[in-house]
Amino acid sequence: MRDGRAMRTSLVVFVIVLLLSTVASGQRQAAYKIGQGDALSVSVWRHPELERTVVVRSNGQVTFPPIGDVTASGLTPSELSREIMQRLRDYTRETTQVTVTVAQFNSRAVFLTGQVVAPGRYSFEAIPDLLQLLSQAGGPLPSADLSSVAIIRATPSGSEIIPIDVGAYMRGQATQPLPTLEPGDTIEIPSIVGVSAMGAQGLVFIFGEVRSPGAYPAPPGTDLLQLIAIAGGTTPEARLGEVSVVMDGGDGQVVAKVDLKEIIKSGSAAPFLVAAGDRVIIPGSESDLAGMAIDGLGTAFAFSLDIMSAWLLYATLDDRLADRAATSP
Description:
With 329 residues, the chain is of the alpha+beta class. It contains eight helices and 15 strands. The protein has two domains: 66 residues, wza like domain (wza like fold, 2-Layer Sandwich); 203 residues, Outer membrane lipoprotein wza fold like, CATH 3.10.560.10.
């Protein structure tokens, strides 16, 4: 009993120290640089008719009447405010204050899927580490296999899978730091029984650049194009040539790259079939990795640190580890 209490105390201290160190590091970060896909709120003092929300396009520009196109990508909100203020002088004939704030940090987003309370797309001013992301998503489900978490990352040579034992980090047994999450990463939390909950229910999960992301029934013989049609079709930002399908294989997870653009162009008679439990990722344009669609199971949030949600994550992990220890021979 004493050992159990000591373990709980040490884990609580570990989580709190982790959170405090993250706050400190966040305070030292440089000012946020606007990226493609970000939604910006622009207001002009004494000119409410000019207030609007604009989205940074793939060319890095926004359109702000009456001055037209303005390059926003790579600037801080303060720098963009000054640029718009300077150009507005030609129209208002007066010096006025312009305020630019980032309403949605869409250029810095990651996807969380699998056995968590709230899977979905999460966007941040500063992407947190994996433990904090899990906390933000409400923690893992009881069916989560935290020893086999995978980060799926797009690289110029294809998809890279980075395995990670999250349980080892929570027990303080990890020898390496947590991998740093990057924009566009997909974090897969698999089931402890080797078959995802979606697969057990005969569902396929599709998210990214489709009109209605979510989980859909996938009877035998369902192909990828049919699934996309069920999800309402793709958005204009969809990169059909770089679709990924994450499947549960015998030795772990397998990522298949599907060139839907070529399949549609050639009218291939051999469509790509999906099966229950598959996760389909439709990426956005290269300049907007996160895309603009928000799936139906999760909401994009600006990151805020919450000690209580971290405690929920710890408690869930601790109970899961205790259950596994009790059932092991």
